[in-house]
What we know:
heterotrimer; B: alpha+beta; Ubiquitin-like (UB roll); Fumarate Reductase Iron-sulfur Protein, Chain B, domain 2; 2 domains; two-stranded antiparallel ribbon; 9 helices; 37% helix; C: mainly alpha; 8 helices; globular
Amino acid sequence: MAKLDANIPEGPIAEKWTNHKNNIRLVSPANKRQIDVIVVGTGLAGGSAAATLAELGYNVKAFCFQDSPRRAHSIAAQGGINAAKNYQGDGDSTYRLFYDTVKGGDYRSREANVYRLAEVSTNIIDQCVAQGVPFARDYGGLLDNRSFGGVLVSRTFYAKGQTGQQLLLGAYSAMNRQIGRGKIKMYNRHEMLDLVKVDGKARGIITRNLITGEIERHAAHAVVIASGGYGNLFYLSTNAMGSNVSASWKIHKKGAYFANPCFTQIHPTCIPVSGDHQSKLTLMSESLRNDGRIWVPKKKEDAQAIRDGKLKPTELAEDDRDYYLERRYPAFGNLVPRDVASRASKERCDEGYGVNKTGEAVYLDFADAVVRYGKEKAHVKGLDENDQVLVEKLGKEVIKAKYGNLFQMYEKIVDQNPYETPMMIYPAVHYTMGGVWVDYNLMTTVPGCFAIGEANFSDHGANRLGASALMQGLADGYFVLPYTIGDYLADDIRTGPIATDTPEFDEAEQSVRAQIEALMNNKGSKTVDYFHRKLGKIIWNKCGMSRNEKGLNEAMEEVEALREEFYKDVFIPGTSESFNEPLAKALRVADFLELGELFAKDALVRNESCGGHFREESQSKEGEALRDDANFTFVSAWEYKGTPSEAKLHKEMLNYENIELKTRSYK
Amino acid sequence: MKLTLKIWRQENANAKGSMQTYTLDGVSPDMSFLEMMDVLNEQLMEQEIDPVAFDHDCREGICGSCSMFINGEAHGPDRLVTTCQLHMRKFKDGDTIHIEPFRAQPFPVIKDLVVDRTAFDRIQHAGGFVSVNTSGNTQDANAIPIEKADADKAFDAAACIGCGACVATCKNASAMLFVSAKVSQYALLPQGQVEATDRVLNMVKQMDEEGFGNCTNTGACEVECPKGISLENIARMNREFLSANIKG
Amino acid sequence: MSVALSSTILRKVAMALSGLFLMVFLLQHFVINITSVFSETTFNQISHFMGTNPLVQFLLQPILIGGVIFHFVMGFVLDWQNKRARGTKYAMYKGNANASWVSRNMLVSGATILAFLGLHFYDFWVPEINYKYIEVLPEDPNRYYEELVHKFDDLIRVILYVVSFFFLSLHLSHGFSSAFQSMGFNNKYTSFVKTLGKIYAIGVPAGFAFIAFFHFLNH
């Protein structure tokens, strides 16, 4: 394997990207027509990349497992997208966005990539508005902003609580234009099951048609993986049911290093688990923390009374409430970064202050915001600011306009009216910062195989700030990959079409067929979900927000044992030549069962507390997370060596030239 | 809760389907409808019966995958929700629940409750976009102020999730609400004006070619739409279409 | 014609326009008929004018008949297309959960009106055409009132008429505002249009029914 080289361009950080674009090779328009590119996944990153590559002139084949590219899970992102526009004039700049992102990521991301991300963030907003994305506007007709956790400026653009949907539909519309022109060939309900390498380069993929079960070969000069994150490793997460690691894992097994697998974001504001039947968790946008105050009872007996249903939260006096984020982090208060907020809720609940039946929930209370907005509104309208009923009515109207859809969603799920009683929230797995290792050009360690969006590891370090995922997905897809891929493809202008009737394709197809056949013929006794649930429990309990060496070692063993049991005892009904969801799921869970082990192994190696990951062996005297910069300022990039437990660690050292490594403080 | 479920079973696109009856015990009112279906499928697999195929993905009401016609209504009896957000507390112990796929000639059944909605995609290919290159070199996002009321209306139209409940619920299987939502979003924004004429003509043409029915203004689509897309959009599309025809 | 009706939207607009045209006709029909309640002379005068004016007879009358035929034929064609668009029928379909009976059953109310039109033509139009153009009897400017009154001697006929007016009312109660929606009219005046539609849909058929009863009871 080649040495791990991030290919970061020379020069001052602010000029790296411009210089790089000036110096990399281009492919002429006539030659682009001769070149095919495969894009797997059609979320923000994949959709925008497919559209842009097609627009540039490449022949694009795009794949998604959903029935339409519009259903990719980017659609569920709620809160917003960051951009250093400084429209609010509150002192924002490219540097500040860069700085906030690196700091928010707990100094475990690559400076050059993050700076580029901040740099192109402004283009994203321009681009999306030109595409007709209906961002929220103020009464002057200009774009509105709100603020998100971990920052001191308002730089988040949003479209109510459906920003991801609107941005994805923007990318989807750009794709539609190219599909209509015949430049993108779209393959819906197709799942990538392997990568095909020819002479060491990525030259195609093997897919399964999810309707007919047909195994297909697709060739191209380059393969772009944009298949999202692997939060479903935990079984319960805010990811979609179909979200999976398979594409990333298949390329990992073919030589792409997997970076920082243990870096998972646990989002603080999700609707708590209600029972064993639960199939997924629902996120409530972080934007709610702009106006909601988080608290638990000060006294344990009050918490117990609430859990028993003897006391209502609204009956608890102000003095008996512990607004623990405001108490512990006065500077940022309820808007501390996600990792900090999540850990703090877990800490309170572990201490016995949790407020729902399971004891795993805290309150997110809008009562103060209702009064504040109500008074403001009454003042503007020249009405009586002391009329409580009026103020409450007006305030609720404002809250409804801002978060109406989220409140409605909460009420539908929990069956409680959040306008009247505080919401209950608890942390849940939401995003994975880890992913396929890529260099500055977003190329993996397999030449010609690229990874973008959540599928790669690059920009968020050990913790992602709110409203940065959408930014990264679109930055990679619209503005980074389409340039950098040209540098690689410049060598391929004379290659001609890639044939699929070669031994390499034969072999890849055979291995896929063999795996499917083995699973189908297994005739075990347990369903796929049984294994998935069990895997999720192991990972959540032993590799979740708080970890220790013993638990991680156990997790590795348990996952390995579970994997063996899976191959012995899984039952899949039906046939492989038909629409068979249990089979599709089994193939995904099989990959999770391998990733889970690497995940634990990575967490074991990283003997420091950073981001949302509290390593019990690494804490300060006050019990705060303790990062270990001397020993762990690197990216762990894992090379596949036959089994996950034997994966080989490569370290990409992180050099901070522009930002001083500091202990994060939000106090 | 104990339920009797009457579910449409169909092996594949070419097979002949029929309603099958199953009974399910131990359903909790806190379950979502799809979680209830998960439990049913686990039970079916234990009995070595092929599980019921249904589309689903995000399970938070935004991806638009889930598509069940429950007790005679798209996404069931609750309002402003998709099937995945429908909870079992809307039903009573002992209820019989009819579950069918979204039906329309342009939505052929793939298997059981899974239907092919790519007709919607093809309508979008015909014109559901603004022809702007994704270079990022467009003008500044704040160069054109847009009246808040228009921006809000455009957003409301853009909130469509493309689930197809409008088609499924319309007695005519008309896709007017879906198409008009996209046409309206762009018609309300200055960015969409340049191509407005071609867009509405092409999208309506494609809609007709797919074989959707005619709108007879019953308003059922608006009621059943999980995102509350307004009938106003259909009127706007009619307007846009007429003026586009007059302009030629 | 075929180009103009090639799209679903234009077909709907054509339905709306022909419907609105028929509503205008219906209103003038009503205005003329209601005079029979107040003044035999006025009624006869207007009827004589309408019955003998060449513009009305040879331009407006054919247009009206064309409009009626178009509206009905198109209505049946659209309904056939709509049924085909569904394909396989639902085992359970709860139409009343989200739309009114009237809006879902325009075909039923329309077919009832069509049947009524048959009776109505048999009652008035056929004798009239016979009188004027086949037997070519001498024009009597005062015959109209008597003819009208004579028809409503029969209770069965009055009941048939009133039942038909009821269905007409149903048809109009959806058709009026629906026509505006089809033509793209949906804005802040829509609630006004809807109110107007209700007044029209109840007022005009009720008026016709009143005329029928009035003559039945008074003669």
